[in-house]
């Protein structure tokens, strides 16, 4: 087994600098333009298998990967499983068959990916886990999902305290518990954050439903509003679900940010604009372009024979109307 230890510090507080682009072949970088970090790296192709490549997060990670790797003449090839486990497994196998000697994976089903990752490491293919722990991976870049959820819950509590003072507000949560332990922890963190601000028993959780895509976020929010027309706030545990919630609230004749508060997590440009406009109270930023750059540099270190710390935590930051414009400007 390859050694995986050393210091590689995740520093994700820098501003995102480049606009979102699609996956492109890197081509061969001229030798004079190759950074020193490319030395000793024989990789020509890196595979990327996100949970889904829609929404704000995963395409931005891809952009960051390309920003670094294309300078070394390394092509990033993406296989989008669109949340389907079987499609992800076959897609990863196709990436490796096409010459990828390193694969970044955000599992749709960690149990299904575990034997695939084990087989790849036996074949000397580097496996990088993204946002979910893969025990067999060479390096994992994880969120502290409970802390992520707490940021959302605390922001929700602050909004309710400011806008529903003296009431017992009604809250709905659009979650993704099917994604396993990390996303269950995010869900639990949101509840803990609300309790921390408002006090346990001082708010009512009227609905908890699975909704992590824009269409399901819209459908579930419409159903919730019909059952609970006096709903005060929705927590979307990712930006796609919150986008669906915004459209459903508007379709019901209500005003998001006034009649129904919304907090979420993610950096979709539309969500950032809604934060600026006051339709969404806050989101949680993960600086995914910078994450992609850091992951790419870890791959280069591993490929050159250096040791890299195996478990790395990606920090999160609350985004409000005070800093949303700066982030929106940086993502184009």
Structural class of the helix and strand makeup?
A: alpha/beta
CATH architecture descriptor name of the largest domain? 3-Layer(aba) Sandwich
**How many whole angstroms does the radius of gyration measure?**
20 Å
Number of domains: 2
How many DSSP H or I helices?
10
Beta-strand content bin: 15-25%
Distance between the termini: 42 Å
The averaged pLDDT comes out at 89
DSSP strand tally: 12
CATH class of the largest domain: Alpha Beta
Shape: elongated
Please, what is the CATH homologous superfamily of the largest domain?
A: Response regulator
Helix content: 40-55%
Largest sheet geometry: 6 strands, parallel
Main β-sheet, spatial strand arrangement: 2-1-3-4-5-11
- The CATH topology of the largest domain is what? Rossmann fold
Uncertain regions: pLDDT < 50 for 5+ in a row?
Answer: 1-28
Order of helices and strands: EHEHEHEEHEHEHEHEHEHEEH
Brief characterization of the structure:
With 332 residues, the chain is an alpha/beta fold.
């Amino acid at each position: 087994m390859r050694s995986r230890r050393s210091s590689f510090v995740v520093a994700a507080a820098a501003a995102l600098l480049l606009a979102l682009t699609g996956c492109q072949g890197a081509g061969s970088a001229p030798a004079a333009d190759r950074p020193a970090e490319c030395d000793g790296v024989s990789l020509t192709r890196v595979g990327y298998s996100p949970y889904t490549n829609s929404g704000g997060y995963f395409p931005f990670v891809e952009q960051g990967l390309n920003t670094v790797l294309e300078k070394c003449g390394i092509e990033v090839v993406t296989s989008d499983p669109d949340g389907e486990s079987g499609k992800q497994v076959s897609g990863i196998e196709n990436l490796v068959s096409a010459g990828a000697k390193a694969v970044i994976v955000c599992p749709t089903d960690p149990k299904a990916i575990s034997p695939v990752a084990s087989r790849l490491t036996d074949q000397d293919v580097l496996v990088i886990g993204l946002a979910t722990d893969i025990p067999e991976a060479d390096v994992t870049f994880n969120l502290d999902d409970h802390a992520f959820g707490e940021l959302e819950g605390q922001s929700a509590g602050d909004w309710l305290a400011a806008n529903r003072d003296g009431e017992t507000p009604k809250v709905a949560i659009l979650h993704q518990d099917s994604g396993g332990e990390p996303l269950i922890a995010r869900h639990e963190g949101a509840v803990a954050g609300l309790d921390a601000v408002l006090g346990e028993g001082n708010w009512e959780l009227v609905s908890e439903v699975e909704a992590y895509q824009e269409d399901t976020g819209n459908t579930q929010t419409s159903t919730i509003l019909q059952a609970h027309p006096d709903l005060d706030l929705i927590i979307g545990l990712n930006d796609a679900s919150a986008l669906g919630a915004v459209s459903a609230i508007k379709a019901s004749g209500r005003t998001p940010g006034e009649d129904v508060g919304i907090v979420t997590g993610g950096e979709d440009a539309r969500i950032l604009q809604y934060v600026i406009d006051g339709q969404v109270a806050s989101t949680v930023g993960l600086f995914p372009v910078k994450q992609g750059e850091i992951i790419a540099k870890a791959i280069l270190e591993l490929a050159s024979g250096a040791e890299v710390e195996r478990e790395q935590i990606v920090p999160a930051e609350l985004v409000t109307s005070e800093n949303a414009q700066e982030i929106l400007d940086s993502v184009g």
